[in-house]
Structures are given as C-alpha cells and as structure tokens.
Amino acid sequence: MASDSDHLRARKAFDLFQSQAANWRDTLIIDTAPELPPPEDIPPICRSIAPKYVRMMQQLGRTLLELLSEALGLFSGHLEEDAACLERLAGHYYPPCPEPHLMLGTTRHSDHCFLAVLLQDAVGGLQVLLEEDCDGSSNNNNNNNNNNNNNNNNNNNKSSAVWVDVPVVEGALVVNVGDFLQIVSNDRFKSVEHRVVSQSIGPRVSMACFFRRQDAATSTRVLAPIIADGEARYRSTTMAELVRHNRAKGLDGSSALQHLRL
User: Fold this and answer.
1) HSE (CB half, 13 Å, CA atoms) of 185?
2) pLDDT bracket for residue 146 (50, 70, 90)
3) Which of 98, 118, 197, 250 is the S-S candidate for 18 at Cβ 3.0 to 4.6 Å?
C-alpha cells in the first residue's frame, strides 16, 4: 500500500512483490532536497521537529564528509560537492511480529548513497554482516570504521560470514558508508551490508538520513587523486543509475556493486 505526494510517501511492506522475503515494517519517506516540503504536507507528529533535525543532520553530514576526505588524503571539502546533500529522511516503524522466525523487519541490503545516518530507539534488531577469513579472523580494515559498531566487507568470495547484532547505545547515531562512497573511494571505504530482524517485542522505530545527489557521478575529479597509485576498480556511473538498479532488483540480498566492477 502506498500514499504519495510530491515530497512525501508512505509505504506498507513497500517491496512485498519485489523482494524474496517480506519486510515487516511501515515507512514514511520525506524528500528533503532541494528543500523540505511545506509544513502542511509534513505529518503533525513530526512537523515542528523536522526542520531542526534536518539542519542538524546536514551539519553532521558535512563534518563526516570532511573527515572522510582527509582520511583519503584529500582536502577536507573534496567530497562535499557531490555528497553533502541530505536528500531523504526515512522513518521506519516495525510493529511486534507474531512469528518473527518467518520474516525480517528489513532484508539484507546496503545503502545506495554516500552516507546513511541512523537514529534508533532502544528495542534493537539491527545486524551487520561480518565477513571472516578461513582462520576465523575478522576481514575488516581496522583503519576504516564504516559503522559505529562494525565494519564489514561485502565481497561474496570470502569464506564465511556471520550476522552480528549492533548494540543500541543511548544517545548515539549509527553511521553507515553507502555503495557510492565505496565506488568513489575505490574500495578504500566499504559499504556495510545490514538487515533488521523481526521481534515479538516492540514496536521498533528508527529514522534514517540518506546523503546523496541524483546527479553525482564517479568523475575524474573524485577518483583521480585516489587511484593515482593503482587502477580503478569500478566503471564510471552516476547516482541515478545506481538508484535505478537498486529499485529494479529490490531488496534481494545481492550487492549492487558487482555489475559495476571492472
């Protein structure tokens, strides 16, 4: 079921006929770029707080992108031009599930954006996929903390993988690297595969902020300083192409990056 306006969409089991498994959640999507919708279009329950929250998240996003640019050896404003657009808020409501063993709250996926910043309540249920080598050691780059709690590699060729609970930390935000940042960083940063498990307790409520620009491209400006000492691992693409590919395949558990690898 869906209810749409120009800037706001409500979804109930939005990908029921696309995903291999049903998602036990309702979603409210608010487009925030180029600006928030008029106050009368925003639900009363979040009408007063939404503008302030968006401003604070935009400031946080710029700070994170400055740090990530410096971590890549670039000047602090390098990624901001393409990535510092808070395009969308997604509020997720996960009702208690009478049979949580039969479905997930959100199936396995990575985010098709530069960054995703998540605020969640105390119920929990978020998990990340942790890849391990044959000896059982974690296959993570210790210098790349892509998730506040876990950093994981979505290379399907690794020998084993395990789902790890992301503990809820009161007052903390979860920051996920998205697929497009993995592309433009030439695998220096890894997007994180994650899911939400259904639970008999709840409801669980979360708010996700997605930083991306539909016209952003893996341009020479972004890639050249990073691949100067190596080879590009992905073909040129745009954010719009990546989003279209993700929407077409749905939340099927596959990586959106495989068809872009060189």
Assistant:
1) 26
2) very low
3) 250
Evaluate whether 68 touches 189 at the Cβ level (below 8 Å): yes
Q: How many CB atoms lie within 10 A of CB 1?
A: 9
3-class SS of residue 259:
helix
Measured distance CA(156)–CA(161) in Å, rounded: 9
Asked if the model's pLDDT at residue 40 lies above 80, the reply is yes
Rounded to whole angstroms, the maximal C-alpha distance in the chain is: 57
Copy the structure tokens of residue 240. Answer: 């719009």
Q: CA 91 from chain center: how many Å?
A: 13
Express each pLDDT in 88-97 by its tens digit: 999 999 999 8
Written as six digits, the tokens of 28 are 């409210």
Mind listing the pLDDT tens digit for each residue in 170-183? Answer: 999 999 999 989 98
Give the CA distances from residue 140 to residues 48, 84, 143, 150, 155, in Å, rounded to whole numbers and listed in that order. Answer: 41, 26, 9, 9, 11
Domains of the chain: 2-260 (2.60.120.330)
Q: Which helix (H) or strand (E) holds 115?
A: strand 115-120
| pTM of structure | 0.81
Which ranges in 72-136 belong to alpha helices (H)? Answer: 80-83
Q: Which amino acid is at 28?
A: L
- β-bridge pairing 204-211 and 174-177: unpaired
Identify whether the C-beta of residue 255 lies closer than 8 Å to the C-beta of residue 193: yes
In the numeric block, the tokens 């996920």 are attached to: 176
